[in-house]
Design goal:
The chain is an all-alpha fold. Helices cover 66% and strands 0% of the residues. Helix 1 packs across helix 3 and helix 2 crosses helix 3. The radius of gyration is 31 Å and the shape is elongated.
Amino acid sequence: MSTATKPNHIGHKISRIRELRGLKQEFVAHELKVSQQTVSKIEQSETVDQELLEQIGKILGVPAEGIKNFSEDAVFNIIGNTVNNHDNGSLFNYFPTFNPIDKLVELFEENKKLYERLLESEREKVELLRSMQ
């Protein structure tokens, strides 16, 4: 069993944070005013200049120290420890606090009342026009 530690590859950390944030290399390149190929090279580099790291951190919304200390295992541990319900299917179910049929009947009754008021208004107009002749 080896106790060797993982290398502190800053480029890989930048890449993973960018992916987790849902950003493309093209976006980072545009913000840095460099080419996409340059961003690719940065993400392949084991070390990154502190000033450049701070610029990238601003783009990714993460402080430079956060990039240096980023641990994918820690992210997954946090996610795993904050989701209490392991049945993810229930996250997508919708259980209204009202009866949809009752709401439909209410809307139908309201529509009926509006129609009756409109009909009565039209009758009044017709009666008014007849009385003017």
